[in-house]
Input
Amino acid sequence: MPHNDDLIADLSELCIELAVEAASTAASGRSHQPTFTSATKSSATDLVTPFDQAAERFIRAQLSTQRPHDGIIGEEENDLSGTSGLTWIVDPIDGTTNFVFGLPAWGCSIAVARGDQLLAGAVHIPALSETYSATSGQGAGCNGSVIAASATSSFETALIATGFSYHPQRRAQQGITVARLLPQVRDIRRSGSAAYDLCCVAAGTIDGYYEENLSLWDIAAGALIAREAGARVEYSPSGARTNIAVVASSPHIFELLRSFVDD
Output
């Protein structure tokens, strides 16, 4: 068995490899098949495509060969129990609506954890040729270059990102939160991908991000990447798989941002 540091390095490389290949294959498939049928899941706005499903099957097949004793949690298929103590957390296409409509902010998010501890993660955004990655305790990077989160302490000049639920009643409540927050900050952005928003926090291109009604596969890799880049990241409830609320930002504006979200 490899030394623990060597094992984690191998896991990190595998996260990157699988995220890049799965997302790139989905992008190529979409370009060759511009017309396809999308299905819906939890609501009329919660989309899934054949490319989501094919990408997850590809990732699972690779893991079954390279990491046959590990567990897998994925968005599109049932959980797979493992015996190694390691679990892969997979979102084959985060930002499916963007993918369907030809917008660039979508990608593949893959993380690996031991229990509740995230060890490594990667997010590949093929339209932007950006691969974000992190290993626990070793910082974060994009395309091999070190990235750092914003250190701003100015809430009134902070650029904040958020996202919205698939359910109309929750969207109405989230709109009220945005209406309270918007006059207090520089501006608000909505990319349509939780994984990408967290990577933007990591890269310092936005100062903070909050969202609720997320699932673990939406945030696992991005949360690790943002935290390793120096952002403060918290999500609750602890240990949950779905209905997760996340706040990530410069440490100096975190409490104020969270207070708006919690009200």
